[in-house]
Structure formats: structure tokens, C-alpha cells
Automatic annotation (TrEMBL):
Compartments (UniProt record): Endomembrane system; Endoplasmic reticulum membrane
Top-level lineage group: Eukaryota
Record's signal peptide: 1-28
Protein name in UniProt: Post-GPI attachment to proteins factor 3
GO BP field: GPI anchor biosynthetic process
Protein family according to the UniProt entry: Belongs to the PGAP3 family.
GO molecular function: hydrolase activity, acting on ester bonds
Residue spans crossing the bilayer: 106-124, 145-164, 176-195, 216-236, 242-262, 274-294, 306-325
Length: 339
């Protein structure tokens, strides 16, 4: 168990850096440049988007589908179908359009399974927060930080659902900013638990308690400042996909190394399998990231690697809340034994 955890900490930076490289490539889109696609969209708009154009269903209009966007969607599938009919799939790669695969909509949702799996992650956080509130007493010092993690998860997966339902500039930005918030909050509360910044020194005095609180406040201000600087740069200077990915990867590496180290130390101290859960959860996440590296055209026009990556984070989220509760119970029990 200890060897696996140590090996994980060595592999994690490599895996995340490879993800960073491929994520930068994934934004390219070849379908937009196809002459037949451009011609199809132009002809469709000319024929259907006048005063007497074809009506758009209400559920599509509710999700802000317009006549030009309907033409764009229809032409993606027309061109894809024509190319696949002309040549075998292994000779004719399916092109992406506007950075996305040509997904089949469902009830107007642009990427239905990414929406569904984002919802499952949202529900996993809802379940986790409910359990935290029910099973950890309000007096426990770390409870508020764990609940904060859950609320960041709410924000992240809410905006993920919105973005995958309809891809606009604003929904994309909100999805990126909420995800960055969740990643940064993960870095914020990890050292509070790992190094017990909430706990004054063994020779507890009023001054040591005050120093502990001050340290957490300084750390909170630093993390908040870094996050807002990140958002400011992307909003008002340049929305740089490569920089955004690099920033999140860097923060994620630090956070995951902290939890992996915590697992090694904790297993040695208590000798119980649950103490290794953070390291094992990190391993799960790293494996799930492989879905982002080995992208493929969507099965059935709906299920792609990115949606499966979202599905792959549901289990670790549930597992993580179980760890937080188990760890808190053990901590509380130790306090009672020492009292």
C-alpha cells in the first residue's frame, strides 16, 4: 500500500503535464475550415433564415438556438454523414466543429451526456454535504472548510451543466472560472487539514490560538488574491487556454502531492486502510484523466471521452466525502481519548 502511494506521487506530475499538452491541442477545429461546411451553412441561412423561415421548436428557442445556429448544427451532421458515406470511417476522420465533436442534441442540450454526468457530480456533492452536516458536529474546526469544498463543487458542476447544455462565450467563461475556484479551494483547505493549521501548538495559549487563526486568514487572502488575479487576467487581459490549463495543473499538482504525502504519513501512523484513501482517490482521478488524453468521436453521437471523464469523477467525489467523515470521526475520537 505504501509503495503504491509513493509511486503515485512520482507519476502524478507527468500525467498532468501530458494532459496539459494535449488540452492545448484539443482546441483546434478542422471542420470549420471545410469548404463544403462553409457553403452548407451559407446556403442554409439564405434559404431558411428570412422572414418566412422555418419555425424553431420552443424548447430549442428556450435554450437560445437561433436560425443560424440551427443551420450550423444541421450542416455539421450533413457534412459528417456525407463524408462517412463516401469513405470508410477508418479512412475519413470525423471532424470537430468549433472545438467540439458533432454531437446529437437531446431536448436542445448540446452535449446531453456531459450535462447528465455533471448533474451526477452535483448530486454527489449534495449527498456529501448532507452527510457532513449530519455526521460531523458543528463544533469540529474543519467542518466549515469541508462544507466550503462542497459549495465550490456546487458552483463548478452547475456551470459545467450550463456550459455543456449551450456553449456560448459567457457559459464557457463561467465554467472555467467555477472550475478554477474549485481547484483553488482544494489547495486552500488541503494544508489546513494536512498540517492542522486550525490547531494551536501543543502548549496551547491564547497567543498560539491567535497565531493559528491569523495564519489561516493570511493563507485565505493569498489564495483569494491568486484566484481573482487569475480571473482578472483571463477576463480583461487575454483569455489564454494554455495559461488557464497550466495554472490549474500547477495548483492541482501541489494539492494532490499534499494529499498523497498525507496518505503516506497517516498510514504509517494509524496503520489503517482508510488513511490511504486520499492517495487512492488521486490515483483514480489520474486514471480518469486518461480519457481526456485519448479523445475519440462520440459513441452514438453523444458519449465522448470528455463526458466519460465527468462520469469518472462521480465515484471519487463520493469516496472523498466518506474519507472526510471517517477522518473527522477518528480525529474527534483521539481528542476524547486525550481529554
Amino acid at each position: 500500500m505504501r509503495l503504491d502511494t509513493i509511486q503515485l506521487s512520482q507519476r502524478l506530475p507527468i500525467a498532468l503535464c501530458v494532459l496539459f499538452v494535449f488540452a492545448g491541442i484539443a482546441n483546434a477545429s478542422s471542420g470549420d475550415r471545410l469548404p463544403e461546411f462553409k457553403s452548407c451553412v451559407t446556403d442554409c441561412i439564405s434559404a431558411n433564415c428570412g422572414k418566412d423561415g422555418a419555425p424553431i421548436p420552443l424548447h430549442h428557442r428556450t435554450l437560445l438556438w437561433t436560425c443560424p445556429s440551427e443551420c450550423d448544427y444541421a450542416c455539421q451532421h450533413v457534412i459528417t454523414t456525407q463524408r462517412l458515406a463516401r469513405d470508410p470511417p477508418y479512412l475519413t476522420p470525423i471532424h470537430q466543429f468549433h472545438g467540439k465533436w458533432p454531437f446529437h442534441r437531446f431536448l436542445g442540450l448540446q452535449e446531453p451526456f456531459s450535462v447528465l454526468f455533471s448533474l451526477l457530480n452535483f448530486l454527489a456533492h449534495y449527498w456529501g454535504i448532507s452527510r457532513l452536516k449530519a455526521e460531523i458536529p458543528a463544533s469540529y474546526a474543519l467542518r466549515k472548510y469541508y462544507i466550503g469544498f462542497g459549495y465550490c463543487g456546487f458552483a463548478s458542476w452547475t456551470f459545467s451543466m450550463i456550459f455543456h447544455a449551450r456553449d456560448f462565450v459567457v457559459t464557457e467563461r463561467l465554467d472555467y472560472f467555477a472550475a478554477a475556484l474549485s481547484v483553488m479551494y482544494g489547495l486552500f483547505y488541503a494544508p489546513i487539514r494536512v498540517f492542522r493549521l486550525d490547531r494551536p501548538s501543543a502548549s496551547a495559549t491564547d497567543s498560539s490560538t491567535s497565531r493559528s487563526s491569523t495564519l489561516i486568514r493570511v493563507w485565505a487572502v493569498l489564495c483569494a488574491s491568486l484566484y481573482f488575479a487569475h480571473v482578472f487576467y483571463l477576463t480583461f487581459v487575454r483569455f489564454d487556454y494554455t495559461y488557464n490549463m497550466a495554472a490549474n495543473v500547477a495548483v492541482g499538482i501541489i494539492t494532490n502531492v499534499l494529499w498523497t504525502g498525507f496518505s503516506v504519513v497517516r498510514v504509517r501512523k494509524v496503520g489503517r486502510i482508510w488513511a490511504a484513501w486520499p492517495g487512492l482517490i488521486v490515483a483514480w482521478i489520474v486514471l480518469a484523466m486518461g480519457l481526456e488524453l485519448f479523445d475519440f468521436a462520440p459513441w452514438g453521437g453523444m458519449v465522448d471521452a470528455h463526458s466519460l471523464w465527468h462520469l469518472g469523477t462521480v465515484g471519487p467525489t463520493v469516496w472523498w466525502y466518506n474519507f472526510l467523515i471517517k477522518d473527522a470521526r477518528e480525529d474527534l475520537q483521539d481528542k476524547r481519548l486525550k481529554a
